[in-house]
Each structure stands twice: as structure tokens, then as C-alpha cells.
Amino acid sequence: MRALLFDRSAETGLRVGETADPVPGPGEVLVRVRAASLNFGEVALAAGAVPAGMDRPPEETVLGSDAAGTVQQAATDGSGPPVGTPVVTFGLVGAVAELRAVPVVLLGVVPSGVDLGAASTLPVAGLTALRALRRIGPLLGRRILVTGASGGVGRFAVQLASRAGAHVVATTSDPAAHGDALRALGADEVLPGPGALSEPVDGVLDQVGGRVLVEAFRALREHGTLVAVGHSSGEGEAFGFGDLFGNDGGHDRSVVTFFLGATGDFGPDLTWLAGQVGSGALDAEPAWRGGLDDAGDAVTALLGRTLHGKAVVDLG
Ligand SMILES: NC(=O)c1ccc[n+]([C@@H]2O[C@H](COP(=O)([O-])OP(=O)(O)OC[C@H]3O[C@@H](n4cnc5c(N)ncnc54)[C@H](OP(=O)(O)O)[C@@H]3O)[C@@H](O)[C@H]2O)c1
User: Domain named Enoyl reductase (ER): which ranges (predicted)?
Assistant: First the structure.
């Protein structure tokens, strides 16, 4: 099968090539992949940005966490959906390929007729937005800040927080470029950074880290929670003297870390998210879409920070 493969000798650390078809084990289905989406973290890993505690996958590993397609071969143990079912699938690797063997616990069912390219944007970005927002607690009537809002996670987070009844403040480094789109997704305010907030917030979903995280923490109301989802800035966090006093600036505020891979039981949420796309309640429109031979363009744009939102690779 054709796939996007880890290859250190390539400029981006990735190349399109042939590799062996995957063989599903018990409890796995074989999916004929129709579309896969790229995430900044995985392409950065291929390009050599390996976070502490993580290894770069071996050469020839198929890139990608997110893929959608149809079940070509059902699981031999009788679990999971039958042949022909449209599904969206999650995993650490193996997505950007014509075929994917995936455990039934890592897939959601997609309503028939839903664009599988849109569905393929959901696993990492959609699940992260949904589950990280839940860490904040109930959102109805709360002021919620989403940083890095123009990105894959940010766009879903703005929509889901708005749907949940929050007053959503979106921050983006370029409000002129992204403001209208973010308001259309449900942002009540679009600002250039947390420092521009006029009122405190009850919760933060931070995709950027560094100075943005510190500023966002300062904007937290008492008992507020900041979920540290992403570290796109590549900066460390330097809190000032007094930031963590928990005095009049806000008692009992928390910063919690988040790792999607540690949250488990992905199927029901993936099915729910795909249903939201199907009903039109969730906009999963990619920012870039093209074939496998053009995937290098999307990888370069993601690494160069010129692509905001999801990139979808169509396969067959
Ligand atoms: N913890 C987890 O389990 C988990 C899961 C998924 C993703 N993540 C991480 O969460 C972050 C967001 O993921 P994503 O897929 O939404 O990424 P993305 O599409 O690349 O979006 C990241 C956004 O961060 C903002 N940003 C601000 N300063 C930046 C800088 N110096 N460099 C790059 N971006 C900057 C940009 O938005 P503006 O231009 O609007 O400011 C950008 O669109 C990434 O760091 C990713 O690795 C973590």
C-alpha cells in the first residue's frame, strides 16, 4: 500500500512510499482509509522535534493518528462494526496510508453520507478539545478562554465551549486574519492575547504555552482551571513572584496538564463527534486538502506555521 512514512533522509522527515499492508489482529478491523488528517505535533516529531519522554518512531513507520474510511474486514472476534461501515479511527501511528488495522476500541462510527475528510479531522483535535474542556467542569454561563484558537484543537474548542453555553473568548496571534472565522464558529470575543482581556475568565484551554500560558493563568478567576493542552510556542513558562500566591488575584486556581493518549475509551466520543459533524452542529472543514502526493506541501506549511487549522490528505 502507499503511505506517508518516517524517513530521516527526507527534508521534512517524511516521504511518500510503498509499505506492507497491515494485518489486523484479533479485536481489530481493517479499514480502507479514504482520508487522514495531519496534526502539528506528529509532523514536528517526524521533523526532529522530539518532546522529552517520547521517542521518534522507527524508520518506515506510517505517520498519523487520524484516519477515516470504511471497514474492509471485520474483527475476527466478532467485535466492532461490520464490513462497509464508515468509521473514524485513532491511534498513535498508521493513519496516512491506504489501509489501517485498528482496534475496535479506537474507532467511532460515522453517519452515512458524512464527508470522511471532515470526519478524519476529529480524533486528535476533536477529542482533545472535548476532553480538555470537560476538565474545566460545567461550562454553562462561564467565561472560557481558548488560546491558539485558529489551530486544529482551538477551532473545535471554540465551537464546543460555545455549544455548551460558555461565553467564549478566543485568542489568536492574528485577529485580523482569523477573527471573522472564529466569531462564525461561536467566539464571543476575539483578542490578540490573554493580556487584552477586560474581565477574568473561569477556565482556559491553552494550546500555546510559554508567556501565553502565564498571562492566561493571571486572567483566571478564583477556583478557575487552566488546562495546559499544547506548547506550540516552544517556550517554557516563567511565573512572576506573586503569580502563585492565591491571594486577591484569585484563590485556588489550578493548572492541570493533559494528555489525550492517557484518557482512554475513545469510541463513544468519536461516534458523538462524527454525529455532530453529520448534523451540521460541528464545523470540521479542513484548512488544506489534497492527495497523498501533495501531502509534503501540507507538512511544510504546518512546520512553517502558515497553515492554520486541519490538513486533510485524501487517499483513494
Ligand atoms: N496534550 C495533548 O494530548 C495534545 C493533543 C493535541 C494537541 N496537542 C498540542 O496542542 C497544540 C495545539 O494543537 P493543534 O493541532 O491545534 O496545533 P495547530 O493547528 O498548529 O495550532 C496551534 C496554534 O497555536 C498558536 N500559536 C501561537 N503561537 C505560536 C507559535 N509560536 N508557534 C506555533 N503556534 C503558535 C497558533 O494560533 P494563533 O495564530 O491563533 O495564535 C496556532 O494556530 C500543539 O502544541 C499540539 O502538539 C496536545
Answer: 11-313
Task: Verify whether ligand 1 is closer than 6 Å to residue 54 (CB atom).
Answer: no
Closest-lying ligand 1 atom to the alpha carbon of residue 260: 3
Q: Going by DSSP bridges, is the β-strand pair 86-89/99-103 parallel, antiparallel, or unpaired?
A: unpaired
What is the full DSSP assignment across 217-285? HHTEEEEEEEEE---TT-----PPTTTTS-STT-SS-EEEE--GGGT---HHHHHHHHHHHHHTSS---
Residue to mutate (ligand 1; options 131, 185, 207, 259; most atoms within 8 A of CB): 207
Is residue 251 within 6 Å of ligand 1 at its C-beta? no
Question: What are the residue ranges spanned by the domains of the chain?
Answer: 2-121+284-314, 126-260
CATH architecture of the region 126-260: 3-Layer(aba) Sandwich (3.40)
pLDDT in tens, 199-237: 999 999 999 999 999 999 999 999 999 999 999 999 999
Predicted confidence at residue 233, as pLDDT, reads 92
Kindly report the protein residue whose alpha carbon is nearest to atom 21 of ligand 1: 151
pTM: 0.96
Give pLDDT < 70 ranges for the chain: 248-249
Residue nearest to atom 11 of ligand 1 (CA): 230
Fold classification of 2-121+284-314 is Quinone Oxidoreductase; Chain A, domain 1 (3.90.180)
Euclidean distance between CA atoms 259 and 233, whole angstroms: 17
